[in-house]
Amino acid sequence: MAKFVYPSPLPHPFAQAVRGGDFVFVSGQLPFDPDRHIVHGSIEIRTRQVLENIEAALETTGCALTHVVKNMVRLEDERDFLDFNKVCPEYFSDEPPARATVGAKLMLDAKLEIETLAYKPLPN
Q1: Helix (H, G, I), strand (E, B) or coil at 15
Q2: Structure pTM?
């Protein structure tokens, strides 16, 4: 199985994304803006930023949001779930991926983190 690593734009000890055969594993994304500052505001604003970051990470691997098969979501405040959930159909409307959502304390003041698994077969 071929493995391709797409490095993180920050000096962290992990890859932004890794392609393992037909699957792409995107590291947990936080609501960083393009200048690498945490976006503050409502959970909806933060969720949109995280999903934009996932989309950008997927693009580096030749994938798009339509290739996402599963999202693993961590919310710092479980009360944000309903407002977070309102944003998802803006990005995953036709065929939403599988998803798991848990409440968890995060390492940064990000309020949420989303880790993504995508599937796109490599060309023969």
Answers
A1: strand
A2: 0.90
